[in-house]
Write a structure and sequence with these properties.
There is one protein chain. This protein is an all-alpha fold. The chain has one domain. 70% of the residues lie in helices and 0% in strands. The chain is globular. It starts with a helix and ends in a 9-residue tail after the last helix.
Length: 137
């Protein structure tokens, strides 16, 4: 192997290994706290008998599925999550599941338009943005 090939391989390994680092973890944390706020809002609305958000989510799911922007497995996963909304603990656990698949699905969430911009910002500020005095070293 030539010296330039060794350098090229080393550079690609460094770039590849840096993926999924701190920045991705921070994004996952922000997405998670936004979904926690969404779950709380959906549970509260459901307890009041307001099903408008669920209809909105169902329309988004159907639209994405019909247009080919969502695969069937993801579609079924979100439907399954919505089906357990009457059990608030199971619902919240399903939305906030700590699996690679749910992290991926949350990043392409069909739960759009549930939170106002102020609610979204508040969730991030209160839960996702750490401060130096809260950091663990």
């Amino acid at each position: 192997m030539y010296k330039r090939q060794l350098n090229s391989n080393r550079q690609s390994r460094v770039t590849h290994s840096s993926k999924g680092g701190f920045k991705e973890a921070l994004i996952d944390k922000q997405v998670l706290v936004i979904h926690a706020a969404i779950a709380d809002k959906l549970i509260a609305a459901n307890e009041k008998g307001d099903r408008s958000y669920l209809e909105q989510i169902q329309n988004t799911l159907d639209s994405r599925r019909n247009s080919g922007r969502m695969r069937y497995g993801e579609y079924l996963t979100w439907l399954s999550v919505l089906e357990v909304i009457d059990d608030s603990i199971a619902f919240k656990n399903a939305i906030l599941e700590d699996s690679h698949q749910m992290k991926k699905y949350r990043r392409r969430t069909p739960l759009v338009g549930i939170l106002t911009e102020a609610e979204r910002q508040r969730a991030i500020e209160e839960n996702a943005v750490g401060s130096i005095d809260k950091a663990l070293f």
